[in-house]
Q: What sequence folds into this?
């Protein structure tokens, strides 16, 4: 079943469930929604450019902002320059993160040239990066990888062994190749093979949509923890459901009122933060989240037709009004004049999301 905890060296993660890093999704606001609902042991940031944060202090704040109650939390970095990755990891450590993670999975063309899954084709460089980052920080160092570049070069086991030999302390495996993107099914046998090959904690990832899937991944692969991505955006309650499932073999499904409340609370947070890309974020979340709301296509239509965060809030409120169990909108105080720097703190520029964005289906 789902273990109550797992260890990354001296860091205890309770329960053994991790929110996957998702560019454009897992910013501080979304992470706090997940933490608030319970059941998620470890949060992760979106992937963050080591080059970007080491060149600009404003970018560091913007991409690595988090709040105290997000602990335990890992910052994920990407990059291909060992010295720059080490410098960025030191910044992550100094900001108080519990662990630092290296992205070896991003399929985006722009990222592949300078890190991400591109590094799976250059193991000597990868070793240099691991060694350089390991020497720079004391906090746990983890990696998240895809299975390999293509089906002819499945390197997950080799990379995990290499990582273990140089002091990396956990490995998350998304068993699809770079060429596969998000097509087909994740091949969980690769997670099992990695688990067999190393003593490191192995975090299994890919295609967990329900608590039953998580239980099956544990039993089929022997992994130490599971990591959940897309299902957390369509059903942010999934972590809590997994916890309930582990305790009783059953779990509760959110009601329409729960969904209404969560959507309004989350949108209100985005509105109050006055993000430059607030409308985009709201629309994107609607793509994921509204599929399990009754008449969700109409809800998506009205969200996409709106032009400002305020308009989105009132149209969503209008949508739910009159439906059974509708909740009142949170008080609309208007966007907090948090100032350019503060809103920048929370926002991500579109260039960060390339490649991952393409996976956002409506
Ligand atoms: C919109 C989106 C953004 C993503 N961004 C990242 C990222 O920043 N870093 C990363 O390692 N993986 C990223 N991924 C991959 C996920 O972390 C995860 O490995 C993948 O979605 C498979 O897990 P799932 O089936 O639970 O979604 C992203 C995936 C999606 C859909």
A:
């Amino acid at each position: 079943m789902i273990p109550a905890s797992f260890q990354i060296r001296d860091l205890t993660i309770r329960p053994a469930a991790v929110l996957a890093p998702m560019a454009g999704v897992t910013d501080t606001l979304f992470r706090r929604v997940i933490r608030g609902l319970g059941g998620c042991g470890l949060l992760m940031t979106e992937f963050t450019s080591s080059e970007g944060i080491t060149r600009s202090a404003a970018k560091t704040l913007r991409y690595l902002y988090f709040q105290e109650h997000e602990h335990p939390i890992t910052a994920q970095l990407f990059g291909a320059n060992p010295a720059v990755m080490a410098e960025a990891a030191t910044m992550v450590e100094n900001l108080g993160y519990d662990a630092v993670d290296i992205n070896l999975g991003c399929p985006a063309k722009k990222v592949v040239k300078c890190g991400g899954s591109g590094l799976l084709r250059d193991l000597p460089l990868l070793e240099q990066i691991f060694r350089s980052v390991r020497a720079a920080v004391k906090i746990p160092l983890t990696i998240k990888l895809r299975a390999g570049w293509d089906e002819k070069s499945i390197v997950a086991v080799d990379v995990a062994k290499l990582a273990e030999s140089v002091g990396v302390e956990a490995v998350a495996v998304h068993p699809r190749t770079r060429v596969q993107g998000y097509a087909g099914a994740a091949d969980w046998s690769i997670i099992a093979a990695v688990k067999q090959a190393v003593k490191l904690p192995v975090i299994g990832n890919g295609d967990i949509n329900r608590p039953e899937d998580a239980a099956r991944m544990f039993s089929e692969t022997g992994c130490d923890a599971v990591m959940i991505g897309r299902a957390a955006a369509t059903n942010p309650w999934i972590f809590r459901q997994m916890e309930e499932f582990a305790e009783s073999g059953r779990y509760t499904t959110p009601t329409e009122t729960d969904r209404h409340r969560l959507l309004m609370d989350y949108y209100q947070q985005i509105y109050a933060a006055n993000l430059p890309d607030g409308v985009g974020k709201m629309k994107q979340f609607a793509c994921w989240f509204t599929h399990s709301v009754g008449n969700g296509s109409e809800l998506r239509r009205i969200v996409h037709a709106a032009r400002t965060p305020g308009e989105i809030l009132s149209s969503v409120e209008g949508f739910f009004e009159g439906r059974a169990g509708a909740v009142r909108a949170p008080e609309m105080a208007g966007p907090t004049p948090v100032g350019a720097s503060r809103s920048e703190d929370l926002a991500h520029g579109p260039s960060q999301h390339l490649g991952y964005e393409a996976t956002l289906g409506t």
User: Anything to note?
Assistant: The two ends are 32 Å apart (CA to CA). The pocket of flavin mononucleotide is lined by residues 20-25, 46-47, 76, 103, 105-106, 144, 174, 205-208, 228-231, 356, 359-360 (CB under 6 Å).
